[in-house]
Design goal:
The complex is a heterodimer of chains A (about 180) and B (about 475). Chain A is of the alpha+beta class and about 180 residues long. Helices cover about 45% and strands about 15% of the residues of chain A. In chain A, helix 3 runs antiparallel to helix 4. Classes of the chains: A alpha+beta (about 180), B mainly alpha (about 475).
Chain lengths: ~180, ~475
């Protein structure tokens, strides 16, 4: 274990203590850190000082894109490229375009929401610097796991674990890169 | 934690959520929830499971054989004839699409209404939606006669320089059903990601770890990710809600936009949506009564869940009954001889047996749910759910067959009965549906683990800003 640590891990089993610790770490000015939880904890994102997600704008772009492409497709094919008289009906009328306008708006929103989510969460990333850590794996089970990366400006191999301990974390330990 | 604190905690949570205690029985810890649901995946495959899968697989094989026969020979092997161009094919299509609707209703609409009880059943209902839509797509594809030319239904640039006719409800249907399938699948998968990560960290076998690891896309439970995730889930729920209403409306346009008596009515879209939710809940009920028994999930899928579903079935069953009555009234009130005659014929003509089966199953049978005792009777709700499945199938059959078999010219009247090929395909869709559901129940978390955890008592922080110091010092 002569390598420099990649970060420090601490466990919380109590949700209140985790929220409290999040506020302290946020106020201490840490940036490259996170709390991994088995389920979404209400208010934890606020306690960590996470900025509001831009995902809604991405989704809205999908809505606009889906709607305009539906309208454009039906107008251009029907009224410009292939004018076919069927029972004297209009080549393009907004009334008959509504179902497809609606469906493609929904489809565009859904696709961009999921693509946007994947992009914002950097998914898929089949690697994580903590992935072999026993504590880290508990985050999908029953533990609120705090990780602070060593590339954070305020990280120190002695001070940061101490701080986590003072905030009530258990099993606080440094994590070293594993050679694979 | 001291006894006093424990009492305060319980009081607090019961004050916030009076129903929370009842949703998950036995007060399990977070770890219990993980272990209970993930252990289904870890458990050995039993001979009983294999036997069931063999039966459903056999049904699917029969259906696939009949489909092969249809496709290689032509749809002349079906019982369709000159006045009746739509028979079991479209009946089954509407039936399966309808089944799917309960899944989206449970996952999206009940989510938006903050109905916490949806949590235990949404995963399996969503899975059911996807499998039902697969069956529906099988039906429509095969009824085209030349399914290898399915891409003719899509607008794509081609050497004939032709485009599809967007004025046709059949074109709308292609967009509606495919959008529905795509969005349902995305919604389901996004919901699964955290639970797949839980399985990745839980399972012991290296192969399973790899598979769940790849599928969970590297999810770590990061709060920064949950923040985006919750917004994504909310948006998907928000758009699925109008989507589910639109899909069956568009399906009903296949009928209403035609100017045939019995089809050309404005009540069809809401009537179809109510019927879809009704039949979908019946199918969820049929499957869950069995699943909770076999997988021993009574702790999570409680009597309260089942009772709530029965209440929804009672409500939607009444809506469907209202629609039947209103159709009759409007047929009379319209003053149109054709309309009047077709509805008298529907109730008293050649297909009266189908009509009254439908009324008996859909309108009369759910009336038992007015009584709490009967709403909580397990064998009864199983039987009633089967009745409703049958009734809703007959509803679609009645609508299609009665209008088509007697058209405007008495000389061309006819009668339709299916051949063994159509019956086999229908059995086959059930085989596909049940096999997929069995595989799902074994290899995918049947209950949304992360969501169940988030509604356990004490899972969420009680007090927000300012209160933490007193709390921390007490620990």
């Amino acid at each position: 274990m002569s390598t420099t640590p990649v970060g420090v891990i601490g466990e919380f089993t109590d949700v209140e203590a985790a929220v409290h610790a999040a506020e302290k770490l946020r106020d201490a000015g840490f940036r490259n850190w996170d709390i991994h939880t088995p389920y979404p904890v209400h208010g934890l994102d606020k306690a960590m000082g996470i900025k509001r997600s831009i995902l809604t704008y991405i989704s809205f772009a999908g809505l606009v894109g889906g709607f305009t492409s539906a309208l454009g497709l039906q107008y251009w094919t029907g009224a410009i490229d292939y004018r076919l008289n069927i029972g004297g009906k209009g080549f393009f009328d907004w009334q008959f375009s509504v179902p497809i306008d609606f469906e493609l708006s929904i489809l565009g929103t859904a696709l961009l929401t999921v693509i946007g989510l994947f992009h914002l969460c950097r998914m898929p990333t089949w690697y994580n610097r903590y992935q072999h850590d026993e504590s880290f794996m508990k985050a999908t089970d029953d533990t609120f796991v705090v990780t602070i990366d060593s590339d954070d400006d305020r990280f120190s191999a002695e001070g940061t674990p101490d701080m986590l301990q003072r905030l009530g974390a258990s099993h606080v330990h440094l994590v070293h890169a594993t050679a694979e | 934690m001291t006894v006093v604190q424990e009492q305060q905690r319980l009081q607090h949570s019961s004050h916030e959520e009076p129903v929370r205690e009842e949703l998950v029985l036995g007060n399990p810890s977070l770890r219990d929830v993980t272990a209970r649901i993930a252990s289904i995946v870890e458990s050995k495959i039993t001979p009983k499971y294999l036997a069931t899968l063999t039966v459903t697989g056999g049904m699917a094989a029969l259906g696939l054989f009949a489909l092969y026969y249809t496709i290689t020979t032509g749809i002349g092997v079906w019982g369709l004839n000159n006045p009746i161009g739509w028979g079991w094919d479209i009946t089954n299509f509407v039936f399966w699409i309808g089944i799917g609707h309960a899944g989206t209703l449970i996952s999206a609409i009940l989510f938006l209404f903050r109905q916490k009880w949806r949590t235990a059943i949404n995963r399996s209902a969503e899975a059911m939606t996807i499998f039902a839509v697969i069956c529906a797509l099988t039906m429509v594809l095969s009824h085209t006669g030349r399914p290898w030319l399915f891409y003719w239904l899509l607008p794509y640039p081609n050497q004939m320089q032709m485009w599809i006719n967007f004025r046709s409800p059949l074109a709308w249907d292609v967009f509606a059903v495919n959008t529905y399938f795509t969005v349902s699948a995305l919604f389901w998968f996004v919901g699964l990601i955290p639970d797949l990560a839980t399985l990745r960290n839980y399972v012991k076998s290296n192969v399973a770890k790899k598979i769940y690891g790849v599928l969970s896309l590297g999810w770590t439970g990061s709060t920064r990710h949950w923040h985006h995730y919750e917004i994504a889930y909310m948006i998907l729920a928000g758009i699925s809600t109008p989507l589910v209403l639109s899909v069956h409306s568009v399906v009903s346009f296949d009928f209403t936009v035609g100017i045939l008596p019995g089809w050309h009515t404005t009540i069809f879209p809401p009537y179809f949506v109510a019927g879809a939710i009704f039949s979908g809940f019946a199918m969820v009920m049929t499957l869950l009564v069995i699943t909770r028994e076999i997988l021993d999930l009574k702790q999570f899928i409680t009597m309260k869940h089942l009772e709530n579903m029965n209440k929804i079935m009672l409500a939607t069953g009444m809506m469907v009954g209202y629609a039947y009555a209103m159709e009759m009234f409007i047929a009379w009130y319209s003053g149109s001889d054709w309309e009047r005659w077709i509805f008298i014929n529907r109730a008293m003509g050649d297909y009266a047996w189908a009509y009254w089966t439908m009324v008996l199953c859909n309108v009369i049978s759910p009336q038992v749910y007015w009584f709490k005792k009967l709403r909580r009777n397990l064998p009864l709700m199983f039987v009633i759910s089967i009745f409703i499945n049958i009734g809703m199938w007959f509803e679609r059959f009645t609508i299609i067959a009665t209008t088509l078999h007697h058209d405007f010219l008495p000389a061309s009247w006819g009668y339709y009965s299916p051949t063994w090929v159509e019956i086999s395909i229908f059995i086959g869709t059930f085989g596909i549906f049940l096999s997929l559901f069995l595989l799902f129940a074994k290899f995918v978390p049947v209950i949304a683990i992360a969501e169940i955890k988030s509604i356990l008592p004490g899972a969420q922080p009680k007090h927000h800003h300012g209160d933490h110091h007193a709390d921390a010092s007490a620990h």
